[in-house]
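fwd from M.: "can u put these together and see what the complex looks like"

so here's what she sent:
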Amino acid sequence: MSEAAEFDVVIVGAGVAGALAAGQFAKSGLKVLVLEAGPDTTRDLASYNAHLETFYTASSKGAETPWPPAEGAPQPDGADLFKQEGYFVQRGPHLYGSTYTRTFGGSTLHWLGVSLRMLPEDFELRARHGVGRDWPIGYAALAPWYDRAEHAIGVSADVEEQRYHGLTFTAGYDYPMRRIPPSYSDRVLGAAVNSLEVDLGEERVAVRVRSYPAARNSIPRGDYQPIGALDIGSDGQERSTYIGERCEGNTACTPICPVQAKYNANKTFARADRRHLTLRSQAVASQILFDGVTGAVSGISYKRYDDPRSTSFNEEVATGRVYILAAHAVENAKLLLASGPQSGEGQVGRGLMDHPALYAWGLAPFNVGAFRGPQSSSGIEDFRAGGFRARHAAFRFDIGNDGWRAATGAPDATVIDAVTNQKLFGRQLRTQLADQLSRQVRMSLAVEQLPDPDNRVTIDPAYRDKFGNPRPVIDYRIADYTFEGMAAARKVAARIFRQAGIKDCSRSTAELRFPTAIYDGEEVHYHGMGHFAGTHAMGSDRSNSVVDEFQRSWDHPNLFLLGSGSFATMGTSNPTLTLAALALRTADHIIAKLHDGG
Amino acid sequence: MTSSPRLENFVAFSAQITAFNKVEIWGTGLADVYLDTIDGLVGAAVTDALLDAFAPIATLRSDAARTDRLRLEVFGSERLGPVARAIVKLWYIGVWYPLPSTWQEQFGPTARNDAFVPTPAAFVEGLLWPAIGSHPPGAKAPGYGSWRLPPNIPSF
């Protein structure tokens, strides 16, 4: 490690993993630099509100709508999926349907906030079910960091509702805030289906509508203080806003919570000790520099730009004692691959996963109050574990509070159909919309995917962005294991709808705006969940992984790779809470080493 | 917003085709913005024709009679129908959707041919939200825990 290093730790990426690690380093007195590719337009309230206006004025609203990228830090966009353009180079055979955001705060700016822990058996999929691979650490080892992560990002849940499938909690532990109140439609659905039992192969599974832990502000427990909307001045000082300390039911978690009642990574930066923290935006990491003898990282080269609309930049180098890539599962792999010496025996970028998901949607027999509340507040978690995982994928359902929006483009699409096709106006129109939209029910059926070495991120000199950095090339195939999980999930969803008297509309109005695959002679319309993972998986030794249990590169002793790229398998939980717990664990490990003089 | 007979006619027409009352239409603060937008897109002559067609209908006592005449003389008109439908969508969703290509071939191109939101307030003031007892996503939030309560769709 260079003695002339400018910082103790250099972190690439101002998203949730980088923010949590940076906060820990600064707290322990280590000098930290964070390089962020995107602009710093999300930490003062006026700029944040400009993003909200961008959302309001978009005629078509997707997850990336409020967060347009800079020229030099492009990002995938759902609208690019069916064009042979955009940031990703997709080689198929199936389209990778997910996106992420390259700006200050990362994809936490537009995530839904679902903060489930992985199940104990998710860490031992090979040992327990003979598929996938095992993690080098188990649930028990990570549990204390789950506790800390839930307090660091602010998760609302009641612990007694979260003990299932072997999930255990530290004695006396509870989440920092009470659960987000379940929606009226959650309660109606729960009353209808909570006595239902479904046969899945040889197993009989009892269904229960259960509220899930969410990183959205609710009523605090003890002395926990919820963090609402940020307003950081150009002097770095935080101004009070007095908004967003509770979820207000804006029904816009994705793509933008207007009051920031939902966690975003900027809140962690705002609480960090600024004396030790340097945040550098509009700095696109482009190459990791290695010491040819030791393999250690000697610096990170980055391209700094003044104007997000321009393609001109200056090259600079940041140096530290320890380096952390926390730039996203795809960006981490891309940056490593672009940096010359092959790491991880050709394993970098391999094993890319997501939760390919289906929608099920239908009409309830009466008004259930659709389009109210946070976008969802409950799920069905009963199919996340079981002996069936030896044969097909596990799955979980997210129960929406916003009608068929995600599945069909409602309510806009519903209005357009009524006006343009059914020729309605006036009283008839208003009456029909009130009747139909208020009864819309939607579930997302998110299905596990196993690591497959052929599903991968690579780079190709033929494909570069406007700064000359490589664009990610994606090879992606959904395996039968997942398709069979989808088929099982679809049957369960249909059974739940039948039990609740909900008219299933999922097939009759199949939308073609999602990627399509053919399985068992039938078209499957699936979508990405934004759950990128597995591109630099952790393992027990260098022959089967890129990083160790502390997310340290096997090949480069002072390099750590943070994020869901480190996941050995996905399980069925949304990845943010687990990657947050891993980031805190890694930070503690590094702090101990550095304070030891290591 | 300064009122004018033409703007008042537009508000009356908008109220009739959306089933919101004139106070609610004025209350969006968007009537003049929308009238300007529509004039700019299809030309004031087409808007005038629309309002002229509505003038005798507006004087009818019964809502059913007004609806029947509107269906025949405005929504059933090749020239005025697609414009009226675009105005309904504009009020409900806050987005101007392009007129069909057949309309533009017959009556001339519109100034823009893409879907767009005239002003951020257009999305926020979309009438579909009060119509279904809700609020636009990202605005007019009903407050913590309100979603637990049974829904309430206002009668009209």
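replying to her w this: The first strand of chain A starts at residue 7 and ends at 12.
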